[in-house]
User: Fold Pyruvate carboxylase subunit A PycA from Methanobrevibacter ruminantium.
Amino acid sequence: MFEKVLIANRGEIAIRIMRACRELDMKSVAVYSDADKTSLYTNYADESVPLGNPSPSQSYLNIEKIINAALDTGADAIHPGYGFLAENPELGRQCEKNGIKLIGPKGEHIEKMGDKITSKQLMKEAGVPVIEGTPEGIDDVEEAKEIAEAIGYPVIIKASAGGGGIGMRAVYSEEELVRALEATQSVALKNFGDATVFIEKYLEKPRHIEFQILADEYGNTIHVGDRECSIQRRHQKLLEEAPSPIMTEELRERMGESAVKAAEYIGYNSAGTVEFLYDNGDYYFLEMNTRIQVEHPITEIVTNTDLIKQQIKIACGEELEYSQSDITVTGHAIECRINAENPLADFAPNPGKITGYRSPGGPGVRLDSGVYMNYTIPTFYDSMISKLVTSGRTRNDAINRMKRALSEYIILGVKTTIPFHKAIMRNESFLAGDLNTHFVDEHKKGIEEEMEKVILEDLERVNRMKSTFMPGKKIAAISATVGTYFNAAQAQQMKKK
Assistant:
């Protein structure tokens, strides 16, 4: 076992990893930028090392600073969490060069699966279903036209490097193709330093279903169940649940076998996720994330596993504690990503100071968070505040529990996605499990109308509060926070209603 682990990340995921380290009797080291000097995770760790400049390139993405922090504190392992350096093969190379163990996969696996063209070709070789598309990168417009015509519109243009849906563009006609090709190449070069793009057949209403993988260095590979991640905005996940509402034992076995086959084919070892698009009874490989996922808590709940601890133990050289037959899915879990964003303004970021905070609790509620009262959410990083997770014996139980938990959650001073999630919990299509990756766009009008109702209900609740329970200033602060979701025109319209 490691004696000391440096967490090369921040916020709620840093605390989550530190909790696992404490249970394994390992010391933890936090690194922090100037913007995170007062963050909760820096105090939760056994030691903290400053990185200086808050710019990600000068702090959490600076491999030299991370390695030096590990060497200076005597850390024998580094856990990158997700985001930042989690899928950067150079971190692994530098760890190996300096005698530090990286808690994650080998650099070659990160490189192979991080390139969408290479990973797709590998999965085709492995016998995993893939979507029809170009076998290599493309930059010639005329060739792109021929390929798109052969595949059949609509098609989608994707960046080969990177992830998170950045730069992806659906194309429905030849007239759109040239503009979309140039735009995707530009975004790919800017974000990933690689302008390589490729073309695939576009599935118009697929579900996004992924399988959690655990693999050790002795050739043991298992899947730890499925997750539904179809509710997204701009290809970024907003809500996940486990298991998928459409999952059957037979489908889980088939898709799980494909996920395991994908990991085994490349000799993968660590925690990872194989993602699929599911459409009309068929499923296709989308990508493999060679790291722990944001949504890992829902899998932990329904399978009674600790994925972070398993990931650390694998890095220590231990054999998997589980065989495939040990993994059973029990009950249902839902995760809402609570971000500092205004969902009524196309999810525009809304960082700032939290002037009031009350977290939800009670049976079946888990909150992974890194914020507190009077904490200022920085402008430099992802807008996530917390991950609110509820569970129950059935999907309906988990939904009702989420409704209750969301009603208890109070965050003042910044706009959040809480109204959005409240609206989703009332949406008839969501309640019926009728989901696809365009769910938010398809139901945009209804969701926005429901959010307006939710916010007005919250305002009415504020007005009913008595000063004996909450000081007048605090009531004013809640009212101001809730009220600012609306711009002046919206507020006037609401009054007329």
